[in-house]
Amino acid sequence: MKIRIAKVILSRFVIFLIIAIIISVCFAYYKCTNKTVVLEFGTFVGSMYDVPDFQSYKALDDAICKFEKANPHIKVKYKSGILKTDYSEQLSQRILKGTEPDLFCVLPGDFNTFASIGELTNLNNLIKNDKTLDLSKQYGTAIKSGKYKDSQYAIAKEVDPELMFVNKTLLKKQGIKLPSVDWTWNDFYKICKEVTIDKNKDGKIDQFGAVGFDWKQAVYTNGQKLFDANGNKAIFDNDGVKEAINFIIKLNKLNQNYVVSLKDFDNGNVAFKPFPFSTYRAYNVYPYKVIKYGQFEWECIKLPKGPEGKNAGQLNSLLMGISSRTKHEKEAWEFLKFLTNDKDVQLDVFKYSHGMPVLKDVVESKETDKELSKYNLEGKNFINKKVLSEVVEQSIVTPSFHKYEASMDIADKDIFQLINSGGDVQETLSKLNYKLNTYLKP
């Protein structure tokens, strides 16, 4: 009898012990899976585009609020007050100390460096394994801007294409119509030649065709590449690049050695100037339109295309990347995906920034019409959405490799000297190509 009672007690104790273990494991699992993750996001105050911006944190705060409601176990924090001019240096210092944010904004000049030193997480597997993500909804060029050596290391939140700023008042006085959407270098040169005159008859030219259309824009609008995809080889000595340099030399000769300045343009004495879309947006609304360019009517159109190119220039992107040392890769990925693919967050790019969303559906939506016309005094949509989409899709994304910025500095100095001092174009480009290929060798 005693033995039977002991067995019953033992069996009950075992059952109790098992139940207690199960409860403990479940409780531990619950605590683990519901533990609040604090995610740090690296950003800066003000506009990426160096234009007036007094609501730089508004869109981010709204995005964080919405994200945290959908993901209550994740809290997102950021340090405020870091100026864009100081952001790269401060971020680099934190990377050196190993204290960088879990994910952060990556400025165009930093992407190649961060990707090459292994600071950014390779996103290929995260993208491949995420069934909720459809990158085909984004502009192809925006996606390409976050690639380094065929791998995705960042995703763009917004982009900034180049357009041509046109002084409509000046053209109207000369009896010249606004160029068509598919205008060419020949059209561009013809108008520049026609408007380059001595208005006050003092023997000096005081009205000009263009300012700021440089050799790089000529190369890109002529559809040319300056390096191979991986940055192993320079290709400056091809006919398309030579054609672009010769066009710039020809264009500059119209000014008879006068160096056209931004002041000339601001005073209404220049017909054309390339501008990023962000600048156009910033100065097309009250009060900045009155302050900056209130003395003449102006419009924005596509860049002129060369014989081998399209009506688009270089594309700049505000990229978002994840630190390769983050302890919260899953959560960082969810927030990165949210910033770059949520429609409300993307529409806020038009509301609170001067860039352009990366989601094609958002750009082409009716909500975009409202945002683009809201602050215009005439209440009009100041640019055709279809044209804007075409410009982004046709834009050039410069290659991503570690020595790109330094290589372009070398090229810029040699070509600037060539354009301004004369010389044989083919010979100069051949020498430059050799110099760059020597520099690019491992």
Automatic annotation (TrEMBL):
<dbReference type="Pfam" id="PF01547">
    <property type="entry name" value="SBP_bac_1"/>
</dbReference>
<protein>
    <submittedName>
        <fullName>Sugar ABC transporter substrate-binding protein</fullName>
    </submittedName>
</protein>
<dbReference type="InterPro" id="IPR050490">
    <property type="entry name" value="Bact_solute-bd_prot1"/>
</dbReference>
<keyword id="KW-0812">Transmembrane</keyword>
<dbReference type="InterPro" id="IPR006059">
    <property type="entry name" value="SBP"/>
</dbReference>
<keyword id="KW-0472">Membrane</keyword>
<feature type="transmembrane region" description="Helical">
    <location>
        <begin position="9"/>
        <end position="30"/>
    </location>
</feature>
<keyword id="KW-1133">Transmembrane helix</keyword>
